[in-house]
Write a sequence for this structure.
């Protein structure tokens, strides 16, 4: 168990885990401090400077997300210079951020909106400093629109820290800073594995899904692809499966997904190629048939064989319950042990 | 997985995915984790960032290699030699865990004796590695505890696969890396529910929960519960089934959600076997090469259309939940099977829901007794064994005793692969999975975006080999083995070592398994996917 220390934030005494940052301590005690580049999955960064605080005995305005708590620390999150500097910082970010919030993919889920609202900033006071930026549309699942980018570095740090790929990085300096691929190539030409972990952590609309439908409801289930067993929320809207996202509490994946889970687990389900009727082979090849007669036929034929003349191959893709019933059919109804799955393959 | 079952008493992953964070050393062998189990690869990379050592053993420069402290690139098919060499180096240097060997294991002396033939010079000769590399890997693995080994089909899919798995077991036991968080032997399973399919008794010799069909008590229990059951003799394995079908001994088959025409080795043989069948029933959600052969095709429901559970590679039962009703005309697989059984006159198939089925599983399999839908509702899954509803599940196996009592060391010798390259077929063909497609592609190929990344099979060949044959990127090639020939375009990459070429089996247009070898592991009958000798020619 981590040691507990006591700190005071804005006059309130709270308990925090030793080793936590001031921002983590505040957020977990339910005290909001504006922040943008911080993400709980990523290492402390201190890039956006929105989380600045005053700490008794410390000079300047340290960033809460990179300062560790110490026992007895006294923190102030608002007032005087803090508010002014924070607003100026925000104005700098807003100057280069489009203001078409209503048509943005991230509208109402945007963290920049949240900070802006919290700080009560309603007007821009600075002119745009950056030129129009290129949109990287090469990936089939998500778009990198640098015009919306606030350079928080969450995406580039995710690619390095979470996924271990490092396909994207912050390139250039000053006005030229941008999220890019080495050699100014497109995402599709890069090492990008298309997992979308960057997109999942982007606070604004810079990395956004190409299919951007807000689901009416979500159902928690398990990804159907590999044996990692990622816990995944599938979203439904207007009778269609429209979204997938990782479940933070998933025992195996803790919220993470790969390209197949995030972008490949829904489209095939309602695909027009699905088999939707039983087929029986006759003189003219396989022909549609009704369930009743097909089931009768199968049952009658299965009954006509001796136990060692039949074999059952259940799927290593379907559910345990499906498999259990199949092996019970083999053993209890067909009386055979000729049953095997594709575990060896 | 027979190897681990022999040594430990259970063939499943000993530890948990979450354990990766606690390992001081990760040894990844015969796996392409970044492509085949991406989310596990992320967690390994994260552990490395926090200071864990990573050893990758693979002839191919797989994705994890870039994070590795040490990469050994042995000749393909020499795993047994290398792993026994690591054991030898550990013993020679006194890095073993004597207390663990003495208190928890048996048959050590026999294993030790077999190490005589695995002196490092011989191992170096067989594997093509330097003695110093082997020693360094042994040191890193043995001296950074806890250390975990993960492996996948690169270990199993050889005619000597069982031996290689047991060599892994030897290595873990000799260093005491069993039964502790962050340690263990972790076979990474392929498909989402391979573990579950085995757990549920879809194996010729066991009932649900690893109860032997040969066991009288088990037999009586199931005969009583079901009203009827099969005999005491284990049935045929998958590969034996196809052999028997080809010989006309198996007359009817019921295949659910599998496409052996594309996924199984030596597909000409499979096709012959399936054609010979008197009655073939195939249940699936899409048409594929196997449904095309069927007398009856039954439309099942996808994972999003039914309730149930999957069991992942770390023995974790997790809920699958119905998001939409089955498409019109489709039925959940359990219901189709149960309806067939009922029409055959069998009793005990009148399930109202998958939860009903799980209750029966709880009652009949002691290791799954505590895994109820009620509990799965409120937790992130339960890892078996979980013998009661109070039991929290088991993240780490063999903590005090091995499932079989003592861990059994196995003496092993090196055997070369079944088919090795020669003058006529000078390349070794390795097969595996890619990130952007899955298995035989019936699902992923219907996701338009995924096909942008990989829409056709490519033969990966080392640029040096390509130069010798005058092959350029994108050239159309004919790849032939003693069993058949397929076509694919060339992809030049040094991921693949000189002398080896690589393909997946995701594309029906390039049915790689026309080529693969009839070689099989003598115990598990696992096909030797990982090696067959081929010839590569440019198609002009
Ligand atoms: S959140 Fe602390 S600097 Fe951005």
């Amino acid at each position: 168990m981590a040691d507990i220390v006591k700190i005071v934030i804005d006059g309130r005494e709270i308990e925090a885990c030793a080793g936590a940052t001031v921002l983590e301590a505040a957020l977990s005690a339910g005290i909001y401090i504006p922040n943008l580049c911080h993400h709980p999955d990523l290492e402390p960064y201190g890039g956006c400077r929105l989380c600045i605080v005053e700490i008794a005995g410390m000079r300047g305005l340290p960033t809460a997300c990179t300062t560790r708590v110490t026992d007895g620390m006294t923190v102030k999150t608002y007032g005087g210079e803090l508010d002014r500097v924070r607003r100026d910082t925000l104005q700098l970010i807003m100057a280069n951020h489009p203001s078409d919030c209503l048509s943005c993919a991230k509208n109402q889920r945007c963290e920049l909106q949240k900070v802006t609202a919290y700080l009560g900033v309603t007007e821009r006071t600075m002119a745009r400093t950056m030129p129009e930026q290129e949109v990287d549309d090469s990936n089939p699942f998500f778009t990198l629109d640098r015009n919306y980018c606030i350079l928080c570095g969450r995406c580039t740090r995710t690619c390095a820290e979470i996924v271990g790929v490092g396909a994207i990085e912050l390139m250039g300096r000053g006005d030229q800073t941008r999220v890019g691929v080495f050699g100014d190539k497109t995402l599709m030409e890069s090492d990008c594995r298309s997992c979308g972990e960057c997109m999942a952590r982007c606070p604004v609309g810079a990395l956004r899904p190409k299919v951007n439908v807000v689901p009416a409801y979500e159902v928690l289930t398990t990804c159907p692809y590999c044996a990692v067993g990622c816990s995944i929320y599938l979203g439904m809207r207007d009778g269609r499966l429209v979204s997938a996202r990782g479940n933070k509490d998933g025992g195996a994946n803790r919220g993470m997904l790969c390209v197949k889970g995030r972008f490949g687990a829904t489209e095939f389900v309602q695909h027009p190629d699905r088999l939707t009727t039983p087929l029986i082979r006759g003189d003219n090849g396989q022909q549609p048939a009704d369930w009743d007669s097909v089931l009768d036929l199968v049952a009658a034929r299965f009954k006509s064989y001796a136990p060692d003349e039949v074999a059952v191959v259940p799927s290593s893709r379907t559910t345990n319950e499906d498999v259990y019933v199949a092996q019970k059919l083999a053993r209890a109804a067909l009386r055979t042990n000729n049953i095997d799955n594709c575990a060896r393959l | 997985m027979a190897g681990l079952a022999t040594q430990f008493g259970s063939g499943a992953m000993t530890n948990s995915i979450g354990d990766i964070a606690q390992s001081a050393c990760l040894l990844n062998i015969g796996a392409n984790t970044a492509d085949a189990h991406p989310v596990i690869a992320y967690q390994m990379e994260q552990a490395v960032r926090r200071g864990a050592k990573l050893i990758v053993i693979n002839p191919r420069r797989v994705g994890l290699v870039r994070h590795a402290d040490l990469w050994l690139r042995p000749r393909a098919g020499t795993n047994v030699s290398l792993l026994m060499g690591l054991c030898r180096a550990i013993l020679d240097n006194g890095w073993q865990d004597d207390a663990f060997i003495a208190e928890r294991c048996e048959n050590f002396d026999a294993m030790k004796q077999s190490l005589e033939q695995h002196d490092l010079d011989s191992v170096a000769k067989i594997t093509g590695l330097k003695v110093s590399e082997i020693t360094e890997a042994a040191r890193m693995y043995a001296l950074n505890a806890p250390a975990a080994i993960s492996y996948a089909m690169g270990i199993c899919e050889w005619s000597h696969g069982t031996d290689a798995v047991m060599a892994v077991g030897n290595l873990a036991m000799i260093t005491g890396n069993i039964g502790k968080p962050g340690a263990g032997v972790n076979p990474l399973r392929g498909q989402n529910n391979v573990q579950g399919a085995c757990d549920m008794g879809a194996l010729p010799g066991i009932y649900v929960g690893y109860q032997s069909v040969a066991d009288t008590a088990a037999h009586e229990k199931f005969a009583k519960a079901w009203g009827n059951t099969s005999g005491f003799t284990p049935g045929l394995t998958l590969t034996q089934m196809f052999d028997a079908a080809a010989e006309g001994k198996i007359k009817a088959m019921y295949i659910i959600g599998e496409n052996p025409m594309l996924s199984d080795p030596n597909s000409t043989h499979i096709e012959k076997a399936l054609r010979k069948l008197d009655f073939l029933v195939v249940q699936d959600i899409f048409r594929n090469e196997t449904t095309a052969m069927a007398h009856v095709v039954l439309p099942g429901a996808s994972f999003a259309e039914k309730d149930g559970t999957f069991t992942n590679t770390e023995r974790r039962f997790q809920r699958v939940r119905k998001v939409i009703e089955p498409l019109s005309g489709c039925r959940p697989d359990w219901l189709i099977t149960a309806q067939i059984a009922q029409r055959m006159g069998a009793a005990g198939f009148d399930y109202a829901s998958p939860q009903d089925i799980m209750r029966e599983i709880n009652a009949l399999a002691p290791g799954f007794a505590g895994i109820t839908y009620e509990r799965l509702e409120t937790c992130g899954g339960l890892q078996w064994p979980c013998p009661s509803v109070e039991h929290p599940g088991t993240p780490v196996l063999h903590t005090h005793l091995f499932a079989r009592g003592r861990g059994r060391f196995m003496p092993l010798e090196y055997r070369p692969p079944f088919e090795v390259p020669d003058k006529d077929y000078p390349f070794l063909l390795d097969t595996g999975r890619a990130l952007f497609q899955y298995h035989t592609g019936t699902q992923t190929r219907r996701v338009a975006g995924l096909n942008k990344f990989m829409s056709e099979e490519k033969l990966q060949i080392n640029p040096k080999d390509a130069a010798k044959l005058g092959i350029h990127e994108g050239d159309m090639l004919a790849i032939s083995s003693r069993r058949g020939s397929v076509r694919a375009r060339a992809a030049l990459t040094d991921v693949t070592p000189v002398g080896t070429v690589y393909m997946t089996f995701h594309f029906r247009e390039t049915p790689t398994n026309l080529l693969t070898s009839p070689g099989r592991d003598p115990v598990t009958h696992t096909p030797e996917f990982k090696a067959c000798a081929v010839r590569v020619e440019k198609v002009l």
Summary: The radius of gyration of chain B is 23 Å. The mean pLDDT of chain B is 89.
